[in-house]
Please model this.
Amino acid sequence: MKNPAGDKPQIDDSAWIADSAVVMGNVRIAADVLVAPNAVIRADEPGASIVIGKGCNIQDNVVLHGVEGSKVFIAEDTSLAHGCIVHGPCQLGKRCFIGFGAVVFDSVLEDDVVVLHNATVQGVRLPSSKNVPVGRTVLSEKDVTELPLVDQGLMDFKHKVSSVNLDLVEGYRKMDRA
Model:
């Protein structure tokens, strides 16, 4: 749906958006993106924008929102798990994973960052391959330096999540064509 300024989402034909998802305003969704039921993607405030890269999955009850004048940018193959919130201004790199109920606000996450379930990241830059453990709060550079790196198990996990969701996009597209 359009926002009050008249901005309408631009959604690639190969993306799959659940009927109960809300996508409104200055939003661009690239190819092969899955937007699951009850996800809310809002760039409706003046000057806000949201860009979702190729192959991302936005799972059930995820909230993406850009406040006035802010941008949310999500690079390709990133997974946003059930019930997480990504609030602009924010930038997520390639192949990131944001876990169940996690909150990311006013931050930059470089490639391959994992933010696990119920963690909070605000006002920081996370270098590539950092792992924010379950329930951790990261609010300062000191907090960032204490974070471990993503291990092989987490790399495998996020790859599997991405792969399963890409398969779902294709499956839902086939169902829609039938």
